Amino acid sequence: MTTGERLAGPFKGYVEQWVQCVEFSPIKIFDTSTGSLLAEWNSHTSVVYSLAISRNGKFFVTGSWDNTVRLWDTATKQQLAPLVLAGHAGTIRSVRFLPDGKQVISGSEDMNVRAWRVEDGDEVGTVMKGDGMVMAVAASGDGRWIATAGAKKIITIWDATSHEKVVELEGHSGPVCSLGFSPDSARLVSGSTDGTVMIWNTTTGERLAGPLKGHTSKIDCVECSPNGEEIASSTGGMAKTTTIWDAMTHEKVVELGAHSGWVKSLAFSPDSARVVSGSGDGTVIVWSTTTGERLLGPLKGHTDRVDSVVFSPNGNQFASCSGDSTVRLWDATTLQQIGPALQHDQVYSVAISPDGHHLATTGGEEKTITIWNAMTYDKVIEWEGHSGLVWSLGFSSDSARLASGSKDGAVIVWDTTTGERLPGPLNGHTHWVRSVEFSPNGRQLIAGCWDGSIRFFDASTGSPLAKLKSHTEVVESITVSRNGKFFASGSGDGTVRLWDTTTRQQIGPALQQDSYIFSVAISPDGSHLASGGLEKELRIWSLTGIIPQSVLANTLTASSDAVGPRVPPNNFY
Q: What are the structural domains, with CATH classification, of the chain?
Protein backbone atom coordinates (compact mmCIF):
# COMPACT_ATOMS: atom_id res chain seq x y z
CA MET A 1 0.00 0.00 0.00
CA THR A 2 2.45 2.57 -1.21
CA THR A 3 2.44 4.87 -4.21
CA GLY A 4 6.21 5.18 -4.21
CA GLU A 5 8.13 6.33 -7.24
CA ARG A 6 6.27 5.95 -10.50
CA LEU A 7 5.34 2.28 -11.02
CA ALA A 8 2.38 3.29 -13.12
CA GLY A 9 0.43 6.44 -13.20
CA PRO A 10 0.43 9.01 -11.71
CA PHE A 11 -2.45 7.44 -9.78
CA LYS A 12 -5.18 10.00 -10.04
CA GLY A 13 -8.14 10.43 -7.78
CA TYR A 14 -7.12 13.00 -5.21
CA VAL A 15 -8.06 16.45 -6.46
CA GLU A 16 -6.20 19.45 -5.04
CA GLN A 17 -5.79 17.73 -1.69
CA TRP A 18 -2.82 17.01 0.52
CA VAL A 19 -1.71 13.37 0.25
CA GLN A 20 0.15 12.25 3.36
CA CYS A 21 1.32 8.87 2.08
CA VAL A 22 -1.48 6.57 3.32
CA GLU A 23 -2.50 9.06 6.00
CA PHE A 24 -5.33 10.63 4.07
CA SER A 25 -9.05 10.51 3.66
CA PRO A 26 -10.34 9.01 1.50
CA ILE A 27 -8.11 5.95 1.75
CA LYS A 28 -7.12 4.46 -1.60
CA ILE A 29 -5.43 1.21 -2.63
CA PHE A 30 -3.92 0.84 -6.09
CA ASP A 31 -2.88 -2.22 -8.08
CA THR A 32 0.92 -1.95 -7.95
CA SER A 33 1.33 -3.57 -11.37
CA THR A 34 -1.11 -1.51 -13.40
CA GLY A 35 -1.77 1.53 -11.26
CA SER A 36 -5.49 0.80 -11.37
CA LEU A 37 -7.53 1.94 -8.40
CA LEU A 38 -8.63 -1.18 -6.49
CA ALA A 39 -10.50 0.30 -3.58
CA GLU A 40 -11.41 3.63 -2.08
CA TRP A 41 -12.86 4.37 1.32
CA ASN A 42 -14.64 7.59 2.11
CA SER A 43 -15.89 6.62 5.55
CA HIS A 44 -13.85 9.19 7.45
CA THR A 45 -15.11 12.72 7.09
CA SER A 46 -11.70 14.34 7.55
CA VAL A 47 -7.95 13.66 7.28
CA VAL A 48 -6.70 10.27 8.46
CA TYR A 49 -3.95 11.13 10.93
CA SER A 50 -2.77 7.69 12.04
CA LEU A 51 -2.81 4.16 10.69
CA ALA A 52 -1.60 0.81 12.04
CA ILE A 53 -1.64 -2.77 10.75
CA SER A 54 -2.03 -5.85 12.93
CA ARG A 55 0.93 -8.22 13.23
CA ASN A 56 -0.84 -10.93 11.25
CA GLY A 57 -1.68 -8.43 8.52
CA LYS A 58 -5.40 -9.24 8.59
CA PHE A 59 -6.63 -5.89 9.84
CA PHE A 60 -5.71 -2.25 9.89
CA VAL A 61 -7.01 0.62 11.94
CA THR A 62 -7.32 4.31 11.12
CA GLY A 63 -7.67 7.36 13.33
CA SER A 64 -8.91 10.67 11.97
CA TRP A 65 -9.42 14.35 12.55
CA ASP A 66 -13.12 13.46 12.57
CA ASN A 67 -12.57 12.08 16.12
CA THR A 68 -13.34 8.48 15.13
CA VAL A 69 -11.48 5.18 14.92
CA ARG A 70 -12.33 2.70 12.18
CA LEU A 71 -11.31 -0.94 11.64
CA TRP A 72 -10.80 -2.55 8.24
CA ASP A 73 -10.36 -6.05 6.83
CA THR A 74 -7.19 -6.01 4.72
CA ALA A 75 -8.29 -8.83 2.41
CA THR A 76 -11.88 -7.80 1.70
CA LYS A 77 -11.15 -4.07 1.98
CA GLN A 78 -14.38 -3.78 3.93
CA GLN A 79 -14.86 -1.81 7.10
CA LEU A 80 -15.61 -3.98 10.11
CA ALA A 81 -18.81 -3.52 12.08
CA PRO A 82 -19.56 -1.39 13.95
CA LEU A 83 -18.65 1.14 11.31
CA VAL A 84 -17.53 3.86 13.71
CA LEU A 85 -15.68 3.50 17.02
CA ALA A 86 -16.86 6.73 18.60
CA GLY A 87 -16.06 8.06 22.01
CA HIS A 88 -13.24 10.51 21.56
CA ALA A 89 -13.99 14.23 21.50
CA GLY A 90 -10.84 15.25 19.64
CA THR A 91 -8.54 14.31 16.75
CA ILE A 92 -7.11 10.78 16.95
CA ARG A 93 -3.33 11.35 16.94
CA SER A 94 -2.12 7.76 17.34
CA VAL A 95 -3.48 4.22 16.99
CA ARG A 96 -1.80 0.87 17.68
CA PHE A 97 -2.73 -2.80 17.87
CA LEU A 98 -1.85 -4.84 20.94
CA PRO A 99 0.54 -7.68 20.01
CA ASP A 100 -2.17 -10.36 19.89
CA GLY A 101 -4.17 -8.28 17.43
CA LYS A 102 -7.34 -8.55 19.51
CA GLN A 103 -7.39 -4.96 20.74
CA VAL A 104 -6.66 -1.51 19.38
CA ILE A 105 -5.60 1.50 21.44
CA SER A 106 -6.21 5.08 20.38
CA GLY A 107 -4.82 8.34 21.73
CA SER A 108 -6.58 11.63 21.13
CA GLU A 109 -6.28 15.37 21.51
CA ASP A 110 -9.14 15.02 24.02
CA MET A 111 -6.43 13.80 26.47
CA ASN A 112 -7.83 10.25 26.62
CA VAL A 113 -6.59 6.83 25.56
CA ARG A 114 -9.19 4.18 24.79
CA ALA A 115 -8.99 0.45 24.05
CA TRP A 116 -11.28 -1.26 21.55
CA ARG A 117 -11.98 -4.94 20.90
CA VAL A 118 -11.35 -5.81 17.25
CA GLU A 119 -13.92 -8.60 17.21
CA ASP A 120 -16.96 -6.43 17.89
CA GLY A 121 -15.69 -2.85 18.22
CA ASP A 122 -16.74 -2.61 21.87
CA GLU A 123 -14.70 -0.41 24.17
CA VAL A 124 -12.61 -2.44 26.61
CA GLY A 125 -12.07 -1.43 30.22
CA THR A 126 -11.86 2.06 31.57
CA VAL A 127 -10.65 5.14 29.75
CA MET A 128 -7.00 5.97 30.43
CA LYS A 129 -7.24 9.67 31.23
CA GLY A 130 -4.31 12.00 30.75
CA ASP A 131 -3.81 15.65 31.53
CA GLY A 132 -2.85 16.83 28.06
CA MET A 133 -3.19 16.11 24.36
CA VAL A 134 -2.07 12.54 23.56
CA MET A 135 0.42 12.51 20.68
CA ALA A 136 1.83 8.97 20.84
CA VAL A 137 0.79 5.53 22.04
CA ALA A 138 2.76 2.27 22.06
CA ALA A 139 2.19 -1.31 23.21
CA SER A 140 4.92 -3.54 24.62
CA GLY A 141 5.75 -6.74 22.77
CA ASP A 142 4.80 -8.93 25.72
CA GLY A 143 1.37 -7.32 25.88
CA ARG A 144 1.76 -6.12 29.48
CA TRP A 145 2.14 -2.38 29.04
CA ILE A 146 0.64 0.55 27.18
CA ALA A 147 2.70 3.74 26.97
CA THR A 148 1.21 7.14 26.22
CA ALA A 149 2.68 10.62 25.90
CA GLY A 150 1.92 14.04 24.55
CA ALA A 151 1.82 17.77 25.00
CA LYS A 152 2.37 17.78 28.78
CA LYS A 153 5.87 16.30 28.36
CA ILE A 154 4.94 13.36 30.61
CA ILE A 155 5.08 9.68 29.60
CA THR A 156 2.63 7.36 31.32
CA ILE A 157 2.89 3.57 31.46
CA TRP A 158 -0.37 1.73 32.03
CA ASP A 159 -1.23 -1.89 32.81
CA ALA A 160 -2.61 -3.17 29.50
CA THR A 161 -5.21 -5.35 31.23
CA SER A 162 -6.51 -3.22 34.09
CA HIS A 163 -5.71 0.18 32.54
CA GLU A 164 -4.30 1.22 35.90
CA LYS A 165 -1.53 3.80 35.87
CA VAL A 166 1.79 2.11 36.70
CA VAL A 167 4.33 4.90 36.52
CA GLU A 168 4.88 8.39 35.12
CA LEU A 169 8.13 9.42 33.48
CA GLU A 170 9.32 13.00 33.35
CA GLY A 171 12.44 14.47 31.80
CA HIS A 172 11.75 15.95 28.38
CA SER A 173 11.52 19.72 28.07
CA GLY A 174 9.11 19.55 25.14
CA PRO A 175 6.06 17.51 24.10
CA VAL A 176 6.75 13.81 23.59
CA CYS A 177 5.69 12.78 20.08
CA SER A 178 7.18 9.31 19.58
CA LEU A 179 7.48 6.13 21.66
CA GLY A 180 8.92 2.67 21.10
CA PHE A 181 9.43 -0.40 23.29
CA SER A 182 12.53 -2.59 23.20
CA PRO A 183 11.95 -6.16 21.93
CA ASP A 184 12.13 -7.54 25.49
CA SER A 185 9.66 -4.88 26.71
CA ALA A 186 12.10 -3.91 29.49
CA ARG A 187 12.89 -0.48 28.08
CA LEU A 188 10.93 2.35 26.53
CA VAL A 189 12.46 4.89 24.16
CA SER A 190 10.95 8.35 23.80
CA GLY A 191 11.51 11.16 21.33
CA SER A 192 10.48 14.75 21.86
CA THR A 193 10.05 18.08 20.15
CA ASP A 194 13.03 19.17 22.29
CA GLY A 195 15.22 17.17 19.87
CA THR A 196 16.31 14.58 22.43
CA VAL A 197 15.90 10.84 22.96
CA MET A 198 15.54 9.19 26.38
CA ILE A 199 15.56 5.55 27.48
CA TRP A 200 13.49 4.37 30.45
CA ASN A 201 13.12 1.25 32.60
CA THR A 202 9.50 0.21 32.05
CA THR A 203 9.16 -1.40 35.47
CA THR A 204 10.75 1.16 37.78
CA GLY A 205 10.41 4.27 35.64
CA GLU A 206 14.11 4.99 36.09
CA ARG A 207 15.75 6.98 33.33
CA LEU A 208 18.45 4.68 32.00
CA ALA A 209 19.95 7.11 29.53
CA GLY A 210 19.42 10.54 28.11
CA PRO A 211 18.85 13.03 27.03
CA LEU A 212 20.68 11.68 23.98
CA LYS A 213 21.50 14.81 22.03
CA GLY A 214 22.43 15.35 18.44
CA HIS A 215 19.25 16.11 16.55
CA THR A 216 18.45 19.73 15.78
CA SER A 217 14.70 19.35 15.34
CA LYS A 218 11.85 17.34 16.79
CA ILE A 219 12.09 13.57 16.86
CA ASP A 220 9.46 12.18 14.52
CA CYS A 221 10.21 8.53 15.15
CA VAL A 222 12.10 6.28 17.56
CA GLU A 223 12.61 2.56 17.04
CA CYS A 224 14.52 -0.27 18.70
CA SER A 225 16.27 -2.76 16.44
CA PRO A 226 14.83 -6.31 16.49
CA ASN A 227 17.93 -7.59 18.29
CA GLY A 228 17.70 -4.82 20.87
CA GLU A 229 21.26 -3.66 20.24
CA GLU A 230 20.55 -0.38 18.46
CA ILE A 231 18.10 2.48 18.69
CA ALA A 232 17.26 4.61 15.68
CA SER A 233 15.83 8.10 15.87
CA SER A 234 14.72 10.19 12.91
CA THR A 235 13.87 13.82 12.41
CA GLY A 236 11.90 15.60 9.74
CA GLY A 237 11.83 19.27 8.89
CA MET A 238 14.97 20.64 7.30
CA ALA A 239 17.26 18.20 9.14
CA LYS A 240 16.05 14.88 7.69
CA THR A 241 18.63 12.80 9.57
CA THR A 242 18.66 9.38 11.16
CA THR A 243 20.87 8.63 14.14
CA ILE A 244 21.83 5.13 15.25
CA TRP A 245 22.57 4.73 18.98
CA ASP A 246 24.11 1.78 20.83
CA ALA A 247 21.29 0.56 23.08
CA MET A 248 23.70 -0.58 25.80
CA THR A 249 26.33 2.16 25.93
CA HIS A 250 23.92 4.85 24.65
CA GLU A 251 26.68 6.20 22.46
CA LYS A 252 25.96 7.49 18.99
CA VAL A 253 27.07 4.84 16.51
CA VAL A 254 26.44 6.72 13.32
CA GLU A 255 24.43 9.61 11.98
CA LEU A 256 23.17 9.48 8.47
CA GLY A 257 22.26 12.61 6.63
CA ALA A 258 19.69 12.70 3.92
CA HIS A 259 19.21 13.16 0.24
CA SER A 260 16.45 15.50 -0.79
CA GLY A 261 14.86 12.55 -2.59
CA TRP A 262 14.37 8.88 -1.79
CA VAL A 263 17.42 6.61 -1.52
CA LYS A 264 17.15 4.39 -4.59
CA SER A 265 20.39 2.41 -4.60
CA LEU A 266 23.26 1.44 -2.29
CA ALA A 267 26.66 -0.23 -2.53
CA PHE A 268 29.38 -0.99 0.02
CA SER A 269 33.02 -0.55 -0.88
CA PRO A 270 35.01 -3.81 -0.85
CA ASP A 271 36.66 -2.85 2.46
CA SER A 272 33.26 -2.10 4.09
CA ALA A 273 34.52 1.36 5.08
CA ARG A 274 32.29 3.31 2.71
CA VAL A 275 28.82 3.10 1.31
CA VAL A 276 27.64 4.98 -1.76
CA SER A 277 24.01 5.99 -2.17
CA GLY A 278 22.12 7.09 -5.26
CA SER A 279 18.92 9.05 -4.95
CA GLY A 280 15.78 10.13 -6.68
CA ASP A 281 17.14 13.67 -6.39
CA GLY A 282 19.76 12.77 -9.03
CA THR A 283 22.73 12.88 -6.65
CA VAL A 284 25.29 10.38 -5.38
CA ILE A 285 26.87 10.57 -1.91
CA VAL A 286 29.71 8.55 -0.39
CA TRP A 287 29.45 7.94 3.38
CA SER A 288 31.69 6.55 6.10
CA THR A 289 30.08 3.42 7.52
CA THR A 290 31.88 3.99 10.83
CA THR A 291 31.16 7.63 11.54
CA GLY A 292 28.27 8.29 9.18
CA GLU A 293 30.20 11.27 7.87
CA ARG A 294 29.55 12.38 4.33
CA LEU A 295 32.90 11.75 2.69
CA LEU A 296 32.10 12.94 -0.82
CA GLY A 297 29.17 14.55 -2.54
CA PRO A 298 26.50 15.19 -3.24
CA LEU A 299 27.63 14.42 -6.76
CA LYS A 300 25.52 16.33 -9.28
CA GLY A 301 26.32 14.93 -12.68
CA HIS A 302 23.08 13.20 -13.53
CA THR A 303 20.03 15.19 -14.52
CA ASP A 304 17.50 12.57 -13.41
CA ARG A 305 17.11 9.95 -10.66
CA VAL A 306 20.03 7.60 -9.96
CA ASP A 307 18.66 4.08 -10.37
CA SER A 308 21.71 1.99 -9.52
CA VAL A 309 25.22 2.36 -8.11
CA VAL A 310 27.96 -0.26 -7.92
CA PHE A 311 31.60 -0.28 -6.73
CA SER A 312 34.40 -1.76 -8.80
CA PRO A 313 36.09 -4.82 -7.22
CA ASN A 314 39.14 -2.80 -6.15
CA GLY A 315 37.03 -0.02 -4.66
CA ASN A 316 38.75 2.68 -6.68
CA GLN A 317 35.78 3.47 -8.91
CA PHE A 318 32.05 3.16 -8.89
CA ALA A 319 29.45 3.38 -11.62
CA SER A 320 26.03 4.96 -11.61
CA CYS A 321 23.12 4.77 -14.01
CA SER A 322 20.30 7.24 -14.23
CA GLY A 323 16.94 8.06 -15.68
CA ASP A 324 18.81 10.61 -17.82
CA SER A 325 19.82 7.65 -20.05
CA THR A 326 23.51 7.73 -19.07
CA VAL A 327 25.96 5.51 -17.24
CA ARG A 328 28.85 7.30 -15.58
CA LEU A 329 32.05 5.99 -14.00
CA TRP A 330 33.51 7.93 -11.06
CA ASP A 331 36.77 8.05 -9.16
CA ALA A 332 35.77 6.92 -5.66
CA THR A 333 38.43 9.11 -4.04
CA THR A 334 37.94 12.40 -5.86
CA LEU A 335 34.42 11.88 -7.21
CA GLN A 336 35.62 13.06 -10.61
CA GLN A 337 33.97 11.52 -13.64
CA ILE A 338 36.20 9.08 -15.53
CA GLY A 339 35.78 9.24 -19.27
CA PRO A 340 32.64 10.19 -21.15
CA ALA A 341 29.14 9.22 -20.12
CA LEU A 342 27.88 6.05 -21.78
CA GLN A 343 24.66 6.76 -23.63
CA HIS A 344 21.75 4.35 -23.57
CA ASP A 345 18.12 4.64 -24.63
CA GLN A 346 17.15 4.65 -20.96
CA VAL A 347 19.22 2.96 -18.29
CA TYR A 348 17.53 0.78 -15.68
CA SER A 349 20.51 -1.20 -14.41
CA VAL A 350 24.29 -1.26 -14.41
CA ALA A 351 26.75 -3.94 -13.28
CA ILE A 352 30.55 -4.13 -13.18
CA SER A 353 32.20 -7.48 -13.83
CA PRO A 354 34.22 -8.73 -10.83
CA ASP A 355 37.40 -8.73 -12.92
CA GLY A 356 36.81 -5.04 -13.65
CA HIS A 357 37.00 -5.46 -17.42
CA HIS A 358 33.41 -4.81 -18.42
CA LEU A 359 30.30 -2.79 -17.68
CA ALA A 360 26.87 -4.17 -18.43
CA THR A 361 23.86 -1.91 -18.91
CA THR A 362 20.25 -2.35 -19.83
CA GLY A 363 17.17 -0.22 -20.24
CA GLY A 364 14.72 1.42 -22.55
CA GLU A 365 12.16 -0.09 -24.86
CA GLU A 366 14.79 -1.88 -26.92
CA LYS A 367 14.98 -4.89 -24.53
CA THR A 368 18.73 -5.17 -25.10
CA ILE A 369 21.76 -5.71 -22.87
CA THR A 370 24.95 -3.85 -23.74
CA ILE A 371 28.48 -4.82 -22.68
CA TRP A 372 31.07 -2.01 -22.59
CA ASN A 373 34.84 -2.08 -22.24
CA ALA A 374 35.46 -0.56 -18.80
CA MET A 375 38.77 0.96 -19.90
CA THR A 376 37.95 2.41 -23.31
CA TYR A 377 34.16 2.77 -22.89
CA ASP A 378 33.70 1.19 -26.31
CA LYS A 379 30.64 -0.93 -26.92
CA VAL A 380 31.70 -4.60 -27.05
CA ILE A 381 28.49 -6.47 -27.75
CA GLU A 382 24.71 -6.20 -27.57
CA TRP A 383 22.37 -9.05 -26.71
CA GLU A 384 18.70 -9.54 -27.38
CA GLY A 385 16.55 -12.34 -26.03
CA HIS A 386 13.92 -11.06 -23.66
CA SER A 387 10.40 -10.26 -24.81
CA GLY A 388 9.99 -7.58 -22.16
CA LEU A 389 12.01 -4.75 -20.66
CA VAL A 390 15.21 -5.93 -18.97
CA TRP A 391 15.21 -4.71 -15.38
CA SER A 392 18.13 -6.36 -13.56
CA LEU A 393 21.64 -7.66 -14.15
CA GLY A 394 24.13 -9.72 -12.16
CA PHE A 395 27.60 -11.07 -13.00
CA SER A 396 28.91 -14.41 -11.77
CA SER A 397 31.96 -14.17 -9.51
CA ASP A 398 34.29 -15.39 -12.28
CA SER A 399 32.89 -12.76 -14.70
CA ALA A 400 32.18 -15.52 -17.23
CA ARG A 401 28.39 -15.25 -17.04
CA LEU A 402 25.80 -12.52 -16.78
CA ALA A 403 22.24 -13.06 -15.60
CA SER A 404 19.41 -10.79 -16.71
CA GLY A 405 15.91 -10.49 -15.29
CA SER A 406 13.01 -9.06 -17.26
CA LYS A 407 9.46 -7.81 -17.20
CA ASP A 408 8.65 -10.92 -19.25
CA GLY A 409 9.12 -13.00 -16.07
CA ALA A 410 12.23 -14.81 -17.32
CA VAL A 411 15.87 -14.97 -16.23
CA ILE A 412 18.48 -15.54 -18.95
CA VAL A 413 22.14 -16.48 -18.38
CA TRP A 414 24.66 -15.30 -20.97
CA ASP A 415 28.26 -16.24 -21.75
CA THR A 416 30.08 -12.90 -21.46
CA THR A 417 32.76 -13.90 -23.96
CA THR A 418 30.72 -15.39 -26.78
CA GLY A 419 27.36 -13.80 -26.08
CA GLU A 420 25.79 -17.25 -26.23
CA ARG A 421 22.64 -17.80 -24.22
CA LEU A 422 23.31 -20.53 -21.66
CA PRO A 423 20.45 -22.74 -20.45
CA GLY A 424 17.16 -21.02 -20.37
CA PRO A 425 15.35 -18.87 -20.22
CA LEU A 426 14.86 -19.77 -16.56
CA ASN A 427 11.12 -19.55 -16.16
CA GLY A 428 8.98 -19.82 -13.07
CA HIS A 429 8.19 -16.24 -12.30
CA THR A 430 4.79 -15.07 -13.47
CA HIS A 431 5.62 -11.41 -12.95
CA TRP A 432 8.53 -9.04 -13.51
CA VAL A 433 11.93 -10.15 -12.26
CA ARG A 434 13.18 -7.13 -10.33
CA SER A 435 16.49 -8.40 -8.95
CA VAL A 436 18.87 -11.23 -9.79
CA GLU A 437 22.08 -12.43 -8.10
CA PHE A 438 24.53 -15.30 -8.48
CA SER A 439 25.69 -17.11 -5.36
CA PRO A 440 29.44 -16.51 -4.80
CA ASN A 441 30.31 -20.05 -5.94
CA GLY A 442 28.29 -19.49 -9.11
CA ARG A 443 26.15 -22.58 -8.65
CA GLN A 444 22.83 -20.90 -7.92
CA LEU A 445 20.84 -17.92 -9.11
CA ILE A 446 18.55 -16.06 -6.74
CA ALA A 447 15.83 -13.89 -8.25
CA GLY A 448 13.33 -11.51 -6.65
CA CYS A 449 9.97 -10.87 -8.26
CA TRP A 450 7.11 -8.41 -8.46
CA ASP A 451 4.75 -10.86 -6.70
CA GLY A 452 6.92 -10.86 -3.56
CA SER A 453 8.50 -14.26 -4.22
CA ILE A 454 12.16 -15.26 -4.26
CA ARG A 455 13.20 -18.12 -6.54
CA PHE A 456 16.31 -20.29 -6.71
CA PHE A 457 17.65 -21.80 -9.94
CA ASP A 458 20.52 -24.13 -10.74
CA ALA A 459 22.83 -21.76 -12.62
CA SER A 460 24.22 -24.56 -14.81
CA THR A 461 21.06 -26.40 -15.83
CA GLY A 462 18.44 -23.71 -15.31
CA SER A 463 16.33 -26.06 -13.20
CA PRO A 464 14.16 -24.40 -10.53
CA LEU A 465 15.28 -25.33 -7.02
CA ALA A 466 13.00 -23.54 -4.57
CA LYS A 467 10.53 -20.72 -4.04
CA LEU A 468 10.28 -18.50 -0.95
CA LYS A 469 7.26 -16.31 -0.21
CA SER A 470 7.33 -14.08 2.86
CA HIS A 471 7.30 -10.58 1.42
CA THR A 472 3.90 -9.12 0.68
CA GLU A 473 5.12 -6.72 -2.01
CA VAL A 474 7.68 -6.64 -4.81
CA VAL A 475 11.21 -7.86 -3.98
CA GLU A 476 13.29 -4.97 -5.31
CA SER A 477 16.74 -6.08 -4.19
CA ILE A 478 18.73 -9.23 -3.41
CA THR A 479 22.24 -9.19 -1.92
CA VAL A 480 24.34 -12.24 -1.02
CA SER A 481 27.01 -12.36 1.69
CA ARG A 482 30.59 -12.82 0.60
CA ASN A 483 30.82 -16.31 2.10
CA GLY A 484 27.57 -17.26 0.39
CA LYS A 485 25.97 -18.52 3.60
CA PHE A 486 23.21 -15.95 3.85
CA PHE A 487 21.47 -13.34 1.77
CA ALA A 488 19.11 -10.42 2.27
CA SER A 489 16.01 -9.31 0.40
CA GLY A 490 14.52 -5.81 0.40
CA SER A 491 10.91 -5.24 -0.51
CA GLY A 492 8.27 -2.68 -1.22
CA ASP A 493 6.50 -3.95 1.90
CA GLY A 494 9.03 -1.97 3.96
CA THR A 495 10.95 -4.97 5.29
CA VAL A 496 14.40 -6.47 4.89
CA ARG A 497 14.57 -10.22 5.44
CA LEU A 498 17.67 -12.32 6.06
CA TRP A 499 17.87 -15.89 4.79
CA ASP A 500 20.09 -18.95 5.25
CA THR A 501 21.24 -19.87 1.74
CA THR A 502 21.51 -23.58 2.53
CA THR A 503 18.29 -24.17 4.45
CA ARG A 504 16.46 -21.28 2.76
CA GLN A 505 14.93 -20.46 6.13
CA GLN A 506 14.48 -16.89 7.35
CA ILE A 507 17.00 -15.77 9.96
CA GLY A 508 15.46 -13.78 12.78
CA PRO A 509 12.59 -11.33 12.45
CA ALA A 510 12.18 -9.00 9.51
CA LEU A 511 13.98 -5.66 9.78
CA GLN A 512 11.27 -3.03 9.62
CA GLN A 513 11.97 0.14 7.67
CA ASP A 514 8.32 1.15 7.29
CA SER A 515 8.77 2.62 3.83
CA TYR A 516 9.27 1.26 0.32
CA ILE A 517 12.75 -0.31 0.07
CA PHE A 518 14.61 -0.03 -3.21
CA SER A 519 18.04 -1.36 -2.31
CA VAL A 520 19.92 -3.51 0.19
CA ALA A 521 23.63 -4.33 0.42
CA ILE A 522 25.66 -6.53 2.79
CA SER A 523 29.13 -5.29 3.76
CA PRO A 524 32.00 -7.53 2.59
CA ASP A 525 32.82 -8.51 6.18
CA GLY A 526 29.19 -9.53 6.72
CA SER A 527 28.78 -7.41 9.84
CA HIS A 528 26.42 -4.76 8.50
CA LEU A 529 23.58 -4.29 6.09
CA ALA A 530 22.55 -1.06 4.41
CA SER A 531 19.05 -0.32 3.18
CA GLY A 532 17.50 2.64 1.44
CA GLY A 533 14.12 3.62 0.14
CA LEU A 534 11.41 6.21 -0.08
CA GLU A 535 12.16 7.75 3.32
CA LYS A 536 15.18 9.50 1.72
CA GLU A 537 17.58 8.19 4.34
CA LEU A 538 20.17 5.44 4.44
CA ARG A 539 19.95 2.92 7.28
CA ILE A 540 22.83 0.76 8.44
CA TRP A 541 21.96 -2.33 10.50
CA SER A 542 24.32 -4.39 12.66
CA LEU A 543 24.05 -8.09 11.79
CA THR A 544 26.25 -9.43 14.59
CA GLY A 545 23.31 -10.00 16.89
CA ILE A 546 21.06 -11.44 14.19
CA ILE A 547 23.21 -13.72 12.03
CA PRO A 548 24.53 -16.78 13.96
CA GLN A 549 28.30 -16.85 14.32
CA SER A 550 28.43 -20.16 12.45
CA VAL A 551 26.89 -18.41 9.45
CA LEU A 552 28.77 -15.13 9.89
CA ALA A 553 32.16 -16.80 10.37
CA ASN A 554 34.78 -16.69 7.63
CA THR A 555 32.91 -14.08 5.67
CA LEU A 556 36.17 -12.49 4.57
CA THR A 557 38.00 -15.78 4.03
CA ALA A 558 35.53 -17.25 1.61
CA SER A 559 36.56 -19.33 -1.38
CA SER A 560 38.65 -17.67 -4.05
CA ASP A 561 35.70 -17.33 -6.39
CA ALA A 562 33.78 -15.20 -3.91
CA VAL A 563 33.54 -11.50 -4.50
CA GLY A 564 32.43 -8.56 -2.44
CA PRO A 565 28.73 -7.91 -2.69
CA ARG A 566 27.49 -5.76 -5.50
CA VAL A 567 24.34 -3.79 -5.04
CA PRO A 568 21.78 -5.66 -7.08
CA PRO A 569 20.05 -3.56 -9.69
CA ASN A 570 17.09 -1.82 -8.18
CA ASN A 571 14.82 -0.93 -11.01
CA PHE A 572 11.67 0.94 -10.18
CA TYR A 573 9.61 2.17 -13.05
A: 17-256 (2.130.10.10), 263-552 (2.130.10.10)
